[in-house]
Design a protein that fits this description.
The protein is an alpha/beta fold and 323 residues long. It is built from eleven helices and nine strands.
Length: 323
């Protein structure tokens, strides 16, 4: 009997030690890491129709290219038509002939025009006859002191990052239900949707709101739609230039520095595609110490409070800024 309890104790210790080591060395959550090795490959999506909003740059662009390499048909949408055409060309080149010009549909679209979301959706249906997966990637981040944020900024950011996403997702959901298709709704959230990010108060609130909306949907219609929440940590894109600030109509207009410790957008797009292929409920990616902080924050909330006190707000902000 003593041997049994010793064995259980040692196994318990080794298990948690291994988890802590993986938190430190992986650039994704543990589930996504194992799925990348043993789960469905991205090629399992070949022939599917995936619509990616906010696809003209950054994570959306790299996700489109990662999917195109495996013969996934794409609708790529954003406001910047010239950049979208460049993304289309990159997708066709990377597909190595598995996609033709008609397999990558370019849609000039402003997510804030919610009254036209049905029209946009119908344009995609007219082209492909269906949509299998909607990836809600469009949005903007924020850099601002919490107490200085004008409430108009709160409303503007929520209109883009939350209400426009929910609106388009409802259009897609109604299509899935009407056609008895178990579709897939995918949302680009953020690590700020799991742990509050300093100097990004409105953005953090918006990402937490998205988790609430889509968790409610998952519990309401578990048999009608798959939902994936994808939470990237600091990533090397041009997002800082477009960030909201504390003042309406102004942008942060800063550049990501080459010395920042950020995940490459290419790696993020690859992991994103794997999360979609495996229909994960929640996935996150990021370089150290993002994984460690997220595991502590999500699974050990009491320990998180102690850890954040030790780290302090200035160090946490440097982690957020990858410095």
């Amino acid at each position: 009997m003593a041997f049994f309890f010793n064995f259980v104790a040692i196994s318990f210790f080794v298990y948690h030690l291994l988890r802590v080591i993986l938190w430190g060395v992986l650039d994704s959550d543990i589930e996504l890491f194992f799925l990348s090795k043993l789960g469905k490959p991205i090629s399992s999506l070949r022939g599917k129709v995936v619509w990616i909003t906010g696809a003209s740059s950054g994570i959306g662009r790299e996700l489109a290219i990662a999917l195109a390499k495996h013969g996934v048909k794409l609708c790529i949408s954003a406001r910047n038509i010239s950049e979208l055409l460049k993304v289309k060309q990159a997708c066709l080149v990377q597909s190595n002939g598995s996609l033709g010009p008609n397999d990558v549909y370019v849609l000039e679209m402003d997510m804030l025009h919610v009254n036209h979301h049905n029209d946009y959706f119908n344009m995609v249906i007219d082209h492909f006859k269906t949509v299998d997966i909607l990836v809600n990637n469009a949005g903007r981040s924020q850099r601002a002191d919490w107490g200085a944020i004008n409430v108009k900024v709160d409303r503007e950011l929520f209109e883009l990052d939350v209400f426009a996403v929910v609106s388009l997702s409802r259009v897609a959901l109604n299509f899935f239900v009407r056609n008895s298709v178990k579709g897939h709704l995918v949302v680009t959230s953020s690590t700020a949707g799991l742990i509050g990010a300093p100097n990004s108060g409105t953005y953090t609130g918006a990402k937490h709101a998205l988790h609430g909306y889509f968790e409610a949907l998952r519990n309401e219609l578990p048999n009608n739609v798959n939902i994936t929440m994808f939470c990237p940590g600091p990533t090397a894109t041009n997002f800082l230039q477009e960030c909201f600030t504390d003042t309406p109509g102004t942008k942060y207009n800063q550049r990501v520095q080459p010395t920042d410790r950020r995940m490459t957008s290419e790696r993020c797009g690859q992991l994103y595609a794997l999360a979609i292929a495996n229909k994960t409920h929640l996935s996150w990616v990021g370089t150290f110490p993002i994984n460690f902080l997220l595991y502590i924050g999500c699974y050990y909330p009491n320990l998180k409070r102690v850890l954040l006190k030790i780290i302090g707000s200035e160090r946490l902000q440097r982690v957020r800024d990858s410095r």
